[in-house]
Amino acid sequence: MSSPPAREPRPGHVAVFPVFVAATLLGLIGAGQHNYVMRANGGDTTLLHALGMGMPYWYLWALVVPVVAEALRRLPLRRERWLRPASVHLAIALGVALLHSLFEMGIQHGLGLRHSSWAGFTELSIGHALYQLPYDLLAYGAILGVLMAVESSRRARREQLATAALGTQLAEARWHALRAQLNPHFLFNAMNSIAMLVRKGQNDTAVSMIAGLSALLRDFLAENPPQEVPLREELAFVERYLAVEQLRFQDRLRVRIEADPRALDAYVPNLVLQPLVENALKHGIARRAAAGDLAILASATPATLTLTVTDDGPGPNGSGNGRDAAAGVGLRNIRARLEHLYGPGERLRLEARPAGGALATITLPYRALPS
Predict the structure, then answer these.
(1) DSSP 8-state assignment for residue 45
(2) For residue range 276-292, what is the model confidence (pLDDT) as tens digits?
(3) β-strands 358-365, 348-352: how paired?
(4) Residue 358 exposed, middle or buried by CB count within 10 Å (0-12, 13-18, 19+)
(5) Is 0.70 topped by the overall pTM?
(6) Are 231 and 155 part of one and the same domain?
(7) How far is Cα 202 from Cα 247, in angstroms, rounded to an integer?
(8) CA dist 209 to 27, 64, 218, 251, 285, Å?
């Protein structure tokens, strides 16, 4: 049994240990620099004085990191909307710098470390805050930049995991298609129909059907298939699939495929139509004694792409044929892939047609380039 995936940190989450390790290292460096200056100027060179003057500055900034992270979560800096969040962050930085200076001076006074003998604590704190202001603003900006880089890395990681999940789902869809469509019965029927064409002397048609079956197998077994393809490629694959199925149905299957020119350039998930077409053939057309109609339509607006697959067989709830249950696995797979690619929402519907038969509808955002 595979172990559960690691939980992704929520936006704004800060790992405490690395922050305080970094603060300790920077504090020790600051303490060493201060001790060096004191030695050069004949000042206090004790270890307590060096640590007291170097460590509080960075430890206090370590405590500020969660505040900056929460501010960034609530006011993210985006390229298209940055002025107002940047102004608020600047105001927060000024307030944090003042409080940081007050607490730093308070800690150092508590340790008995004096900066001057003539000025009081308030005057020293304000003067120290003004003196340290450029460095404090730089520290706030550095923390902000590191947090943004960390969140960007996490976001890229989440996208990589989502892409890997989509790849797994696509591989499962291809394997399911191979098991469901290219099973021995399907291959037997296709080869038997080709053999009958040869016996009748229709060799050109037989060769054409063999080529179509070969192309279909190549599409199914292609390595590293793209997640999304132009609709024209998806329809071309479906046409090859139907050309092979036509061998079995002969005159019992009438197919109509129509697509707006604009729709043909839109990108759709790879292998998104084939399961719906298979469902229509297996649970619709195959259950009719007479010839049946299968229609695949595509229409586009500037914002959406709509794909429909209809048949005039028994509807999803007709004659107790269990069509909903039989189609459940394929529909769930398609819905999961659509949700991964385009976010949550009802993008796939299977319903009965008023005139009889079934109607499957997929609604996608219109994109002329893959996501």
Answers:
(1) -
(2) 998 888 888 888 878 88
(3) antiparallel
(4) buried
(5) no
(6) no
(7) 13
(8) 76, 71, 14, 16, 21
As a whole number of angstroms, the distance between CA 107 and CA 55 comes to 10
Instruction: Look at the chain and report how many structural domains it folds into.
Output: 2
The alpha carbon of 357 is separated from its chain's Cα centroid by a whole number of angstroms, namely 36
Instruction: Name which residue leads in pLDDT, 15 or 299.
Output: 299
CB 340 within 8 A of CB 162: yes
Q: Could you tell me if 263 and 359 lie in one domain?
A: yes
pLDDT tens-digit readout, 37-94 = 888 887 788 888 888 888 888 888 888 888 888 888 888 887 767 788 888 888 888 8
Residues 236 and 360 in one domain: yes
pLDDT tens track for 193-205:
788 888 888 888 8
Is there a domain that residue 166 lies in?
A: no
Record the tokens describing residue 209, joined without a space: 């059907």
Q: Rounded to the nearest 5 degrees, what angle is found at the Cα of 218, between the Cα atoms of 215 and 220?
A: 110
Among 159, 183, 204, identify where a domain stops.
159
Residue showing tokens 């697509």: 259
72 touches 151 (CB < 8 A): yes
Tokens describing residue 260:
């707006």
* Last residue in a domain, options 159, 177, 197: 159
Q: To 10 degrees, the CA torsion angle through 344, 346, 347, 353?
A: 170
pLDDT tens-digit map of 165-174: 777 777 666 6
Per-residue b or e along 231-261, where b marks 16 or more CB atoms closer than 10 Å to that residue's CB: bebbbebbebbbbbbbbbbeeebebeeebbe
State the DSSP code for 320.
G
Integer Cα distance of 31 and 29 in angstroms: 5
In this structure, of 106-110, 116-120, 333-337, 348-352, the range with the lowest mean pLDDT score is 116-120
CA 283 to chain centre: 34
User: In which domain, by residue range, is 297 found?
Assistant: 225-365
Residues 144 and 238 in one domain: no
Q: Encoding tokens for residue 154?
A: 């996490």
